[in-house]
Amino acid sequence: MMKTNYLTAVALGLLAALCGCQAEDDTSRTPQGNIPIGFLSDVPGTRATKEYGSAADLTDMGVFAYFTNGTFNQGSSTPNFMYNQKVERQADGSWTYAPVKYWPGNTTDRLTFFAYAPYVDEAATGGSNPSFQGRTAAGFPKLTYTVPAAEADQIDLLAATPLMNRTAPTTGSEKVTFSLKHALSKVNIGIKSEVGITVTALSVNKVPATATLTFTNSGFTWGAIRVRKPSPPPLPMER
Known about the structure:
By secondary structure, this protein is mainly β.
């Protein structure tokens, strides 16, 4: 009888160990690879009137990275690997950030990257513009942007084509390269008169004041647009 109980206990112990191993294998773990993650950025041809006409005009960008054991899942994946990570362009054209992170060591692990520019610090006094959903929000990143009232504070906003479900490269010289495109660009309005009319003021009505940019598998979309009310006062024009 004692022998039977002993064998039963051993069998239950082995079963528990096997179950524990299976549960651990199904859980995403922190990557432990040895290849550092590096970044590059490019800005395709644009009609921007003032800022960010090329990659050389960029000084920093914000990066969100999702670590998944398998492919990105819109319903459950979160920015658990990088959340609004500041990446800065150096004088020699390289991009750096700290602390440096490394590619996953497991073949089934994936990293999905999203980026925008210029970088904003959400911890800044008064909040950030754009603002973000938070570290625990699942799904594609969302950036909510409000057009500043002061013209001097109105800057271009760029967003990159997402890099989905990337695996570790073979060497550290291979970089994560973002293609940043204008999501918002400042518009300059000029008026030319051929009949001697002098324009002293100009107003634009029903201008969107706040909107939310949502990344997708292949780009981004705008939604949740709110129009500024009341309309802004006329802008003085140079004579």
